[in-house]
Amino acid sequence: MTATDLPLPAPAVAAPGNRSAPSRPVRSLGWRLVGYAALVLAAAGLLLPFYWMVVASLKTNSDVFTIPITWLPDPVVWRNYLDIWQRSDMTTWLGNTLLLSVVVTLLQVVTGSFAAYGFARVRFPGRNALFLAYVGTIAVPWQSYMIPQFILMSKLQLSNTLWSIVALQAFGAFGVFLMKQFYETIPEELSESARVDGLSEFGIYRRIMLPLSRPALASLALLTFVTTWNDYLGPLIYLRSPELRTIQLGLNTFISQYNAEYALIMTGSVLSVLPVAVIFLLGQRHFIEGIATTGLKG
Amino acid sequence: MATLPRTRPRNRRLVSRNTVAGWSFILPNFVGFAVLTLLPVAVLFYVAFTSWNVFGVAEWTGTANFRRMWGDASFWTALRNTVYYTVFHIPLTLAASLGLALLLNRKLRGVRFFRTVAFFPYITSIVAIAIVWNQLFSPEYGPINALLGAVGVDNAPGWTTSSTWSMPAVIIVGTWRYMGYYMLLFLAGLQTIPAQLYEAAETDGASPWQRFVHVTLPGLRHTTFFVTVLLTIESFKVFDLILVMTGGGPGQSTLVLSQYIYQKGFEENQFGYASAVSVVLFAICFTITVIQFMVNKRRNS
After folding, report:
1. Which carries the bigger pLDDT value, residue A35 or residue B220?
2. Rounded to the nearest 5 degrees, what angle is found at the Cα of A209, between the Cα atoms of A203 and A212?
3. Where are the bilayer-spanning segments (chain B) (predicted)?
4. What number is the average pLDDT over the span B46-52?
């Protein structure tokens, strides 16, 4: 999915500290056990594909599909994790993807938070109409304007360069929306008194809003990074040269090339998911807060 | 600006100063947003009425693209499949994500771990997901059919190799991927229901089911509405999952609108016709969102 995906109105979310949360203690032991059983079952279903991915990546190719199914790799084939670098351009793909994700994230965070301040705190004619244009993209799926967008990008000589992906992802309305939601929770009096003290709007943004909005900035950065890392359609349409391939694109060409190398394919998949998994586990709180405060997806 | 009364020059100065300040904040993002989103959306409605091809030669052809679409069997197949996906994906995901949210909105040990688990599919790339599920769905050796065989299902489905079962397979994966995300929105919604309502219902002797129907569901109305809008758009634009999992096949059994746009535009270079199909996708998503907002407004009043 692209970051151009969607800015959306927030669902009513309880302000932090609102203690109406009905997380009630579960009383009888029986119900508690039923609850656990349901949870364990759900978790197993949710995790099975990941388990399969990791286990298959450590098997020999002929062991991936066996009757009956082997749920543990025997022998454990670590070699797959060495072979993949020789058999594919993994290094190039990961390098491109990392570069793109970092550049897009920086641009999105800077321009998004900047614009959000304008929308949240500066009153000027036409502001609301302009914001409506941002929010109005709610009901417009990217797939419906990818054709004219491609024509425009081609005219700008951007297609088949990494810049096309930067352009595609960096200016999404998502960042503006997320940051605006956050800025509006910061008391107006803070900026008001700074204004009285003679601080310019830019000074207020830099000295007051930015330091206060660190958690929101973290949410935005993480969500943007993951979205860009995972994007498949953008690179599919814009990046034609093999040396420009991102990890998603590369992985998919790898599959069509070696479609019977089941174990190696899983090794590649694990490597493509690993960075995102690590980032998610480290910054989990920010992910969840970012989504809960805006109700948006990245 | 010139029409503002001259008696308030300070105010006018303030307005113009704010306008400059406001725009300078917004501009860096807006330039990108305007060029890459607003402009393409506007251009779409022009290209759809032309025969734009790969050489950039565009001839105004009026409604020719739309008339062609009317008689295009593949277009109707794509539309039908998209609706098929939507009709099952929305209720399944709603039920699964609400169920998960209710389960996880309790003080049980390990709830935080389970929330992480539920969210994990959502942050995993479509390509990796599609590859794994294709292995899981493998008709002869895959674990899913092995499991079905173990519980006594004799002729297990062929999943992505069968034109009957490929769409259900895609729907299952779509639901699996997105339920954690919507669960999060439902969890946020559940936090807003006052605990006193549950206590009052309990004092009145309401059963757990009655509490769910009369307290939880009404309290979640806004969230449910919002989730439904998101789900609808998400379903209608479904694309990359299908592209990697089935490529639209076997035959055209999982061909969806977005993919048809992609085929006509990027594989066959018929930008004009592809744009006309895009207009249909645009119109569907837009209309449904407007209807949902109107229905919700009426229900609220």
Report:
1. B220
2. 140
3. 20-49, 83-104, 116-136, 238-261, 273-295
4. 79
